[in-house]
Fold:
Amino acid sequence: MSAPLLRVENLRTYFHTAEGVVRAVDGVSFTLGPGETLGIVGESGCGKTVACLSILRLIDPPGRIEPDSRISLRDRDLTAASEGEMRSVRGNEISMIFQEPMTSLNPVWTIGDQIAEALRTHRSARPAEARRRAAEMLRLVGIPNPEQRLDEYPHQFSGGMRQRAMIAMALACDPSVLIADEPTTALDVTIQAEILDLLARLQEQLGMGLIFVSHDLGIIAQIADRVIVMYAGQVVESGTADELFGRPRHPYSEGLLRATPRVGRRMRRLSVIPGSVASPKRWPPGCRFHPRCPYAWSRCREDVPPLPGEARASRCWLEEEPARRTGGWDELALAEDH
Ligand code: SF4
Structure:
């Protein structure tokens, strides 16, 4: 296996508020190889987005990346980089696209000027060269008549076209890593499928590493090589997409899969994971998933389960006591039916 492009080790991002410390990301580690797609999955509030923003150091006070967190791009320690160095990393070596394109696109600038701006800033491109490259990028992401559309404003683009324009902007400087945070959630299913195809094709063409964040397991199954499942600020399971979707080991991953409709599987009704993610100000003691877990026993409420390794691992005491895996989600569903 080739050396990782990006390595995140023990990332902890805490928000030091007047009401207490919010441990939004709490000891997350993963790697990303060149040309690889890493899926990050979990419910809202589990720390996926904060982890991605931390990689780019886009955390505003009172948020802070805590001291022994380490983020390296190839051999470079980004946690030790100055703010000026980070400005040259963002949008250049590491780019990010968001769920809502209007958070990245400036409504009063033309699409062409916004793509060209990245090229002028990071590549010192002259105006004519930047415009030529901007048109090339729009063509690459499948926007028809790119030369003409360069002079249009974001509001003149449809939702799907805006998303494509944002991808063009993110890729303008040939980043080594692209972080896509729920980039298709706001789109209808046809456009969603087109954007996923586009990302997969561009990734193959350009050889970049892709981090794809979603709460939608169907999408992650379609696009990811490897997956990490996050819950309550931590990674609770990791593995290849085949391992994770074929044989999930953590009860939370099991619950998420059961809550995902699948073509060809008859379901009486769609399962849900009862309850919601606890407040990051007060994560539950022991295993953070224990208040919602159908297998929980006394050990889970007291002792913190470790995540042994990064490749294929589950942060769960069932790894040590597999005989306790009885009943589970099926029993819970039956109990709810009566
Ligand atoms: Fe459930 Fe216990 Fe495993 Fe946590 S450690 S996921 S509570 S079985």
About this structure: The first strand starts at residue 6 and ends at 17. The chain has a mean pLDDT of 90. The longest helix spans residues 189-206.
